[in-house]
Amino acid sequence: MQKLFIVEDEEKIRQELADLLTKNGYSCILTKDFENVVEQIMEAGPDLVLLDLNLPFYDGMYLCRKLREKSDVPIIVVTSSNSDMDELMSMNSGADDFITKPYNVHILLAHISAVLSRVYGKTTSCIFAHKGLSLDVMKSKASYQGKEIDLTKNEMGILRVLMEQAGNIVPRNELIRYLWEMEEFVEDSTLTVNINRLRKKLEQLGLKDYLITRRGQGYMI
């Protein structure tokens, strides 16, 4: 399990980010001590650092430079600032990537996976599990009780979102928005077609009532 160090001073954002990353198979280290961040990171030895820019004691640019003097650990700057200058200065300070808040969680996860893959020379795994069904995002396959099915990109995207929010109703427009980020354009009818195809594939695994339609609301598992 790859270890991520989160440097974020807003407690709510810090915890929500940690919960998201833990749910997606990462181990997270959090800190409330922003005076000795570099020392903490060096001691923890994480695989990647998520670094905010606006912090108490020292700003993220300074911490990025100091950390880069001591370590090659990959750094992704995650900040509410969206100026080109901040992005340029972050990269010049040694950051590997830059993403602005508010971010789409799927885009953030993609950035993290891409940086880890680039730095460590291997593809990071991303596996979800719910009620015996396992989804391997990197292989776009789902398995249940020894049986396995191949999924299209859209089918995989739908199942991933549903598994991330298992037990909750996911509105149609949220699924469409996610698929739209993967493709140039997705019509409402495209979602219906892909839902039906995914449901049939799950039935092939023996999961007839796994994907539930809540009429007028959305879908859930």
Give a verbal description of the structure.
- The protein has 221 residues and is an alpha/beta fold.
- Helices cover 44% and strands 20% of the residues.
- The protein has eight helices and eleven strands.
- The protein has helices at residues 11-23, 37-44, 60-70, 84-92, 105-120, 153-164, 172-182, 188-204, and strands spanning 3-7, 27-30, 48-51, 75-79, 97-100, 127-130, 133-136, 141-144, 147-150, 212-214, 218-220.
- The strands form three sheets. Strands 2-1-3-4-5 form a five-stranded parallel sheet, sandwiched between helices. A four-stranded antiparallel sheet has the order 6-7-8-9, covered by helices on one side. A two-stranded antiparallel sheet has the order 10-11.
- Strand 7 and strand 8 (141-144) form a beta hairpin.
- The longest helix is centred in the C-terminal third of the chain and has 17 residues, at 188-204.
- The model has no long low-confidence stretch (mean pLDDT 86).
Concise synopsis of the structure shown:
The chain is an alpha/beta fold and 221 residues long. It is 44% helix and 20% strand.
Looking at this protein, list some descriptive labels.
alpha/beta, 5-stranded parallel β-sheet, 8 helices, elongated
Radius of gyration: 19 Å
Number of helices: 8
Q: Helical residue percent?
A: 40-55%
Largest sheet: 5 strands, parallel
Apparent shape: elongated
